[in-house]
Amino acid sequence: MPGDVGHSATGELLAVRGLTKAYGDFLVLDDVGFSLPAGAAAGVVGPNGSGKSTLLRCVVGTESADSGTVLLDGVVLDETASEVRAALAGVLDDVDFFTDLSVVDHLRLYAWAHGATDPDDVVDGVLAELGLAAAADQLPSTLSSGQRRRLALAACFVRPRRLLVLDEPEQRLDAAGRVWLAERLRGEKAAGTAVLIASHDDDLLDAVVDMRVHVGA
User: What's the rounded Cα separation, in Å, for the pair 88 and 156?
Assistant: First the structure.
């Protein structure tokens, strides 16, 4: 039964056990299992269509697996639980923005709603770090695709988090942006955040992850 998120006696922040998912007769995930402690990163790898995004959606609870269990701090993950929402931040493949809020107001809302300390200072720092300061007063719809990707990442970085789940976060980032992302994710690990990332970028994975989770062929 879902309950209060505390600290797992095994030291695992995230544990995935026997996760299986099919669409009709097509088996996407077949008994996938791994564990991830705080301060470590796992890379989900596999060919296109192998189920990387499906695995991440099942982990965060936006899609239901046919069988298997996802545990956060030893407790079955319930995406609606306030403790889970306070611990988990992510960028998946279906990012939505508040269309009527500017970039800065969007981030301030995220920071305030998730209880960030000094939300304005946090937001200003992240805007500068991601190169979005000049676009702070723009609406998300006016941003380039690369800027929208940075905004999605910024929404994670302005809020407290213990688990970061990212689906191909390097998409639409230039070479300098990918170098920054690797450094940022290493910093996340050093701060004790666990990182689960799906990516085709071997350089990024080599720079960040401690283990790889293979899905598909």
Answer: 9
pTM over 0.85: yes
Q: Centre a 10 Å sphere on the Cβ of residue 85 and count the other Cβ atoms it contains.
A: 14
Q: Name 74's Cβ contacts closer than 8 Å, sequence gap at least 6.
A: 6, 7, 8, 9, 10, 12, 15
Q: Would you call 89 helix, strand, or coil by DSSP?
A: strand
Q: Tens digit of pLDDT for each residue in 151-178?
A: 999 999 999 999 999 999 998 888 988 9
Least confidently predicted of 129-138, 183-192, 208-217: 208-217
Residue 23 contacts by C-beta under 8 Å, 6 or more apart in sequence?
none
Taking the C-alpha atoms of residue 81 and residue 203, their distance in angstroms, rounded to an integer, is: 35
Domains of the chain in start order, with CATH, are: 12-214 (3.40.50.300)
- What strand order describes the sheet that includes 75-76? 26-37, 12-23, 67-72, 75-76
| Phi and psi angles of residue 40, each rounded to the nearest 5 degrees, phi first | -125, 160
Interatomic CA distance for residues 42 and 165, integer angstroms: 10
